[in-house]
Amino acid sequence: MTDSTRDDPTHHDQTHDATIDWHRFWTDAEGDHRESARPGETHGMADLLDRLFERTKYPDSFAAVGCGPADCPLELAERHPDLDVFAYDATESARREARERAADHDLPNVTIEEATLPAFDPDRSFDAVYCYAVLHYVEEAARAVRNLYDAVAPGGLLVFNYPNRFTRAEWDRESTGDGVLADRPDFRERFQLLLEGRNLLSYDRIEAELGARPRSFWSAADAEEYWSREETPPEVRTGLTDAAINPCVCVPK
Ligand SMILES: C[S@@+](CC[C@H](N)C(=O)[O-])C[C@H]1O[C@@H](n2cnc3c(N)ncnc32)[C@H](O)[C@@H]1O
Q: What's the pLDDT tens digit per position in 168-180?
């Protein structure tokens, strides 16, 4: 992908047909709509990762895959100048924004590169690989998880969230009928793969793929909130816990 493509209105980054055009999104979206695609920031993931790493072993290298504007990796890079931070995204406009922000914050320990899951084949491994709010848009989510795990160095850690059958049931309910997201057709377009049940994972499936049992990242990091659909007022939520709807796991290697 060259810089000449980035202002071309006909340009379309190849993520998946069954989601939104992410290049358009990061070029045009504003306000709350834009914020809705930065959960790494709104869910305080940098704080939670820091808390987990301090309890286990602080990594020397950290890779965020599907980084968007790279809120979480840039935050970690700023807090830890000795940490080598790599941020990958499929979409040129996201990478451009991430690069500009890394330059603005004078962060020489950050490298931004292209990667489009399920493929992930960097020319090195990392002590920690992190992939948040991305597998929802990847049809071959299990293959993506295998490739992410392959990029973890021995003794390292993979952290990712993913859609499961509870995510699908809850988000389908909320985006149809009189659900709180029913007036947002872009929501169903964005999450088409998971709403059609085409990329759902579970602890058992992850264990079968990786040969290691995942554990809840929310528990491991002592998270007070588990984040699912924060737009949903408490009185219309189902009995499903946020942790069930937004499973996030860590898998040591
Ligand atoms: C909802 S945003 C999440 C951004 C960031 N991880 C966060 O938590 O704030 C999803 C990001 O995934 C990227 N993406 C979508 N499909 C992808 C794929 N197949 N491979 C890599 N990145 C992808 C999009 O360009 C977008 O930047």
A: 999 999 899 988 8
- Which pair of structure tokens corresponds to residue 55? 């309890």
Interval between CA 66 and ligand 1 midpoint (Å) = 4
118 upstream amide cis, omega within 30 of 0: yes
Residue nearest atom 1 of ligand 1, based on CA coordinates:
37
User: Which residues, 6 or more positions from 233, have their beta carbon under 8 angstroms from its beta carbon?
Assistant: 180
Q: How far is CA 252 from CA 16, 99, 182, 207, in A?
A: 29, 29, 39, 12
Sketch out the chain's domains with CATH numbers: 19-162+202-221 (3.40.50.150), 163-200 (no CATH)
Out of 89, 132, 140, mutate this one to test ligand 1's pocket (max ligand atoms within 8 Å of CB): namely 89
Residues of the chain with pLDDT under 50: 1-7
